[in-house]
Design a protein that fits this description.
9 strands; Alpha-Beta Plaits; alpha/beta; 206 residues; 5-stranded mixed β-sheet; two-stranded antiparallel ribbon; 2 domains; Glutaredoxin; binds iron/sulfur cluster; single chain
Length: 206
């Protein structure tokens, strides 16, 4: 039987340092590869316990119980059509990522939604990795009452004017709109440990 029957589906793996697979791996076969800034896997160290696969929250780590199972899963990964962007939506509960090219799109969006609160999480290409590791959108939405009360969208920003309108100087930036007016912006990356501080700031913007 093949040794090291773990497959990492790189199409949907968000390469979080705090990967559940790394956390539970008893041998270090699954590790954080500092040089390449990605999750690494060393089949020679793997004892095929399958724990990493069980602990990947996005099912990006697969493990074959035997060679046949491994081959089948490997084929599935080769044929994977989902993308990291879709995973972002599935995992974090945000609306699909939109790209703002013109200022007017912001107004269009405001007119389209009936939610009293609109939250835009703005990012630029280089900051998307941070967002993927940040606090879950569902928890943020819950502060605003969930449901129709709040709309949350992650937006790839390409228009500098929006930065000026929203007073954004750092990414990622979370802009809160209440009844169509900007009530504030929180800039920079907050990780799970800073959640309370982040939530307090958010509640102040309600
Ligand atoms: S199967 Fe077990 S030993 Fe192998 S990488 Fe996963 S957790 Fe580590």
């Amino acid at each position: 039987m093949k040794k090291g029957r773990v497959i990492i589906n790189r199409n949907i793996c968000d390469n979080a340092k705090e990967c559940g697979g790394i956390e539970v791996c008893p041998t270090g076969a699954m590790y954080w590869d500092e040089e390449n800034q990605m999750i690494g896997y060393n089949a020679a160290e793997c004892i095929d316990c399958g724990l990493c696969a069980d602990n990947c929250p996005v099912e990006a780590i697969l493990w074959g119980i035997d060679d046949e199972d491994y081959e089948r899963k490997n084929k599935e990964v080769e044929e994977e059509t989902r993308t990291l962007e879709e995973l972002n939506v599935e995992r974090y509960g945000a609306a699909p990522i939109e790209e703002f090219i013109e200022n007017s799109v912001l107004d269009e969006f405001k007119n389209k939604t009936t939610s009293p609160y609109i939250l835009f999480e703005f990012f630029k290409d280089e900051s998307i990795q941070c967002l993927l590791h940040s606090i879950r959108v569902e928890e943020i939405k819950a502060l605003f009452g969930n449901g129709d009360n709040v709309t949350y969208t992650k937006v790839c920003l390409s228009d500098e004017d929006i930065c000026n309108i929203c007073n954004i100087s750092e990414f990622p930036a979370l802009v809160v709109l209440k009844d169509g007016n900007i009530s504030g912006v929180i800039e920079g990356y907050y990780d799970d440990e800073q959640k309370e501080e982040f939530f307090k700031k958010l509640v102040d913007l309600k």
